[in-house]
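Worked problem 6 (solution included).
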Amino acid sequence: VACEWGVKIMDSIVEPDRSIWGVRVGRILLDSGDPLRAEKILRPIVDVPWPDLALLAGDVLCDVYENLGKGSEWTALTSRLEKMLPGAQRSGRHAALCALAMWRTSHGNDQEGLEAAQEALDLSESPVEVRRAAQRLAFSCLPSLQLDRASDAAEKALEASGEHPQQRARSLRTLGVVRMWQGRGEEAIELHEKALALARWKGFSSRAALALQDLGDALRVSGAYSMAGERYASCIQAAEAQDLNSTIHLVAFKQLMCEIAQGVDLSVVDRIQNMVQPAVEAGLGLAVPFADLLIAWSLAGTERREEAREALARARSLEGFQVDPQVPAI
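Solution. The predicted structure is:
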């Protein structure tokens, strides 16, 4: 209902208020499980003649492209936002840095992602800005295992969210992910269950799908593989209904990780290899080396040790970059 009213209000106001409202509506549509409609509203706002407003729209549109699995569009948009940075004021720069932090870390450049997130946090003035930048910082700290710093950032994000349900659902997720990486599985599961309940209560369908993925992760890392598999299956079902294509491909890898952790069915190698190209096209920038790392992990305890070593050598670009707390690091 809120989305429908938001769209109707847009038709009755003039620029730049129309575009400002469009960014808000786009964000709500994304969290409510309608990323295609969010894309339609946000895409023209990136072209408005007000640079800071264009950057604000671009930040949210990056989230939309990531969720839709439009990898090439996501990459092109982040490049465009980076070129717009020199002409940005504080709010626009903050938005662009948040977008760049996520893209860089997701594509293996966690150090530059971390620097962008920290600068965005330093620029933050409002609780909304603090929350978004702190979340980006928390996620960017994980690959280098800066877990205390990630925890501080995640706690800051949750505090900044207050009782705002949309922001709180995102921040509960961030803190839950960090707690999983810290080995605090029970806390992680509790936080993700809270995020799932809040998302379902408020109708944030895409948030609910992600919470199911996160619950699966926390259960998997805790060794509860059967329960993790159930959450992953529910996540994929929800994601397919909402065109959340990157989530579909990512969770498919995680389902195979449950299999590998429980014992090797060597058919998993062929299945991993068949998943790589669609995952790359969906914007999973580390799909190729991560797949090689999974193959090396799956073959390490078999007679195919030479193949495992070859796969590990191909995954060397992940050296010093921890992709998942359960997968052996290089």
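Discussion: The CA atoms of residues 127 and 160 lie 5 Å apart.
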